[in-house]
What we know:
By secondary structure, the chain is of the alpha+beta class. It is 18% helix and 30% strand. The two termini are 21 Å apart.
Amino acid sequence: MRPLGPADPDHIGPHRVLAVLGAGGMGKVYLARTPRQQLTAIKVIHRDLVEDPSFLNRFGREVRTAQMVRGPFTPAILAADLEASTPWMATEYVPGPTLSEAVRANGPFPEESLRVLTLGLARALQAIHTAGLMHRDLKPGNVLISPRGPQVIDFGIARAVEGTVLTKTGEAFGTPAYTSPEAILGQTQSPASDVFSLAGVVVFAATGEPPFGRGRAAEVLTRVAGGEPRLEGVPASLRPLLDRCLAKAPEERPTSDQIVHELSAGPLPSAEHGWLPSQVDQEIDHHRRELQRVATTAEPPRLQALSTTGGRRHTALIIGAATAALVLAAGTGLSLLRPWEAEEATGQASEETAEGDDSSSASDTSGPAFTDTVQGTYFGADGDLLYVHSGNRLTQWDWREQEPLRTFGDQIRAAGAGGDHVVTGTRDRLTVWDPEQNEIASYELEESAEDYQINNVSVAADRPLVLFIERNDDMESKLHLWNWENDEEWTETVEDPLREVRLSPDAEHIALIYPYVEDSLARVEVRETDGLEPVHEIVHEDIDSELSLDTDSLNVAFSPDGSLVAISSGHLESTIVHDLERDEPVARFDSASYPQGLAFTHDGERLLLGLSPTQGSRSGGYQWELSTGEELTSTTTLIYENPTVHPTGETIVITDDSPRSPVLIFLDPETLQNTHEIR
């Protein structure tokens, strides 16, 4: 949650805007107060998308589809205006964590909590299936946690229309660890497919792991289609039910109605006791306090007319706020209606209203601004987290669940990650963070360097070192190597303009990338970090004097052990691999113009080169076997921009910046086939 900026509106339709919740591929999301004093999450569609008639049709279907699903375990739409100059949609708001966040932070749920979770998910599927829809991507990241039960989001909305998990052949299926066997095999999906996913979500909540384990997508999908689920950590009372839900044959699974009937007959928490573990309740209370602070410090709302454009009044799709509100307790120990206690409770809770209602949330509210170019992707030390630098934001993702977790700083010009640390650079400040967004250290440019700006950063994997450039508008550059633990620094003024820098994983070498500028040839210079002594230089001979700063594309990557450096030249259409210990080239490969990212595989045995799908005659990138020099890819291989390799080789993430909204594509390392996407 961030304060409003100068470009943010103070009203959207009749709603008073309080704060920025985040941004996704479709647009920006705000926290707002309705005229009836409710809190709501408002999704405002990006201006570029408004110009696309096909998108407006899809967005209209999204709103109408979501309106069809109502119940205490599925958030409702409060209002929408599809004809406004900037269309928007307001949904119920819940400040609680997702199920995946809650389990990651606090561990598996106890048996009573699991029974309520299972019942709530089944009740949500009842509502979704009754509306004639399917969820198709039920997973822990699509379940929000609130005191009154789980809240299922993203049910058949944008995914039912355009699909955010697509292969290049057009086949769609959900998150690999939670998808159904029939989806994997290309068979007809039905409500039973959602029941299979429901069981996977509950197993995750009970054990902290999906029922068919983790790993490469191809391996997980194989286990889902033909293997047996791991239910050892699931309470004995729930194991038979979940085992039936995970049956390979859809007809052998219980329906959502049968699950509700079976669980309603068993013991459930009473009205005097909540359903959540105490530590999760405390986390939700923290969210509430932050919400209350924002709501109470904001300017009191003013009633506004519905939006107008060109003198024509629009009719907004206003839904009665009182009938859509949910009730949340203000503190622990307060008795309130529990929707899981009895069937007659359904609908009653939604008719109650509370001041400062903070009950439900739209999905994908804190993702990176994927309407902006993705400048870089970085895995954390253990590979569980992915950091995405897009526009002026660095966002942390649970890439397996396709779930945004947190955003680091604002106005980010440069970013990098190494080991368990993340480094962001604004115009004049460098900040080191841990994965929980705690600030570890910071570096500020001197006041005398007013014309200089931080331009590019690189972070060591196992040492507290960051390499970065300080540059002014005249392309005068300063090189900095900073140890944030002891605050030691090595600085050098560089005669020629520096475009990029790279720090080897072992922090023994640095690579300086110089563009072609006037009489200075484009080149790569490799130095030792100890004393910044030069050890190797590659100069591009016979460069056309017409080439500009961005025309001759140089890409550089170090091998995981730091012994090799690879350099790809767009001008020379070649990629070389240089042994730093022997100071000699060990491989040379023919490659295309406009290289877009270079990376070694995690074991150092292969080299990947990305290419933009819209530039040059080749529509995919390259992969070479270093020991044999063999190219392992075709002209249509799906290696697009910025290939980034998982630290244990579980996946490779690439970027496709060619669509209007860029896409992160995850590849199986062996087949290089698309396993899933984040939009």
